[in-house]
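Worked example 3 (structure in, sequence out).
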């Protein structure tokens, strides 16, 4: 089997929430067009694992120390594999003259993380569908909510926007470790939410206005993140369709599952502008006129 060259950093199963006949209105570089889901939010070999320097491995070890023990144990095989597989595979490839083995290893380097994300997406599919039907009851089931939290946090760190921001802020000697670090950062967030499960709230936003929710190249955003300022709190916003979105946050006054109607168009517009702010000019909608509204 050949390697997967088109790596989607925003899953097609997610973008289907805005699709019409498997096509979606897209705003990119100031232009609006209708295109197939297959053609958007992807890059060639985006998740390919590359050799990691000694400095990069040391940084990975630092992140590993901060992952809660329960999550570290749950994902132990994944953590161990990602920490060493890139250098190991390149070493094997360079010292083996059999073309078939070299090709197999090259495919593994290219597809391993892409396949990991595909598995996580598959596990979360039922919950995405529930949310699009206005049902978030899975959040109250401690035995299954972790699958959705895993999907949410991995989506937060896996995008092209997140990678660009991370690489722009990292010293050169650490940049080749980002392919592993983005997974470890996601695991750290998962661990925090899982450990404090009873203190976290999922708000299901029901958009009752005529202005639909949009999404973008960074579909999970931290509403507390302000450019140039230290992030001290995490409130994750995630639209799942033109009608529904969720907010996952740690609140002292309420916890568990909360349903909230968005009845003012200004509120829907505020959330849409936050998506625009974090998505570096790549936006999606089921409605062309809505994207025109956010094109300038």
């Amino acid at each position: 089997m050949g390697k997967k060259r088109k790596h989607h950093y925003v899953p097609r199963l997610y973008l289907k929430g805005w699709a019409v006949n498997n096509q979606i209105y897209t705003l990119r570089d100031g232009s609006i067009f209708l295109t197939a889901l297959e053609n958007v939010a992807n890059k060639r070999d985006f998740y390919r694992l590359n050799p990691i320097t000694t400095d990069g491995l040391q940084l990975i070890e630092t992140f590993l120390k901060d992952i809660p023990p329960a999550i570290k144990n749950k994902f132990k095989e994944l953590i161990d594999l990602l920490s060493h597989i890139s250098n190991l595979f390149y070493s094997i490839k360079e010292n083996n003259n059999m073309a078939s083995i070299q090709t197999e290893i090259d495919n593994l380097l290219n597809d391993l993380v892409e396949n990991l994300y595909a598995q996580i997406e598959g596990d979360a599919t039922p919950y995405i569908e529930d949310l699009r039907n206005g049902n978030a009851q899975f959040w109250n089931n401690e035995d299954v909510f972790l699958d959705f939290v895993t999907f949410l946090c991995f989506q937060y760190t896996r995008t092209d926007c997140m990678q660009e921001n991370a690489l722009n802020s990292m010293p050169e000697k650490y940049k080749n470790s980002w392919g592993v670090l983005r997974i470890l950062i996601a695991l750290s967030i998962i661990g925090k939410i899982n450990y404090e499960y009873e203190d976290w709230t999922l708000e299901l936003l029901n958009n009752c206005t005529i202005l639909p929710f949009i999404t973008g190249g960074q579909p999970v955003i931290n509403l507390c993140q302000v450019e140039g300022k230290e992030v001290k709190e995490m409130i994750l916003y995630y639209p799942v369709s033109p009608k529904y979105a969720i907010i996952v946050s740690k609140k002292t006054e309420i916890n568990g599952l909360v349903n909230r109607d968005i009845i003012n168009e200004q509120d829907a517009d505020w959330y849409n502008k936050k998506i625009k702010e974090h998505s570096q000019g790549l936006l999606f909608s089921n409605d062309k006129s809505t994207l025109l509204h956010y094109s300038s």
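Notes: The mean pLDDT is 90. The radius of gyration is 20 Å.
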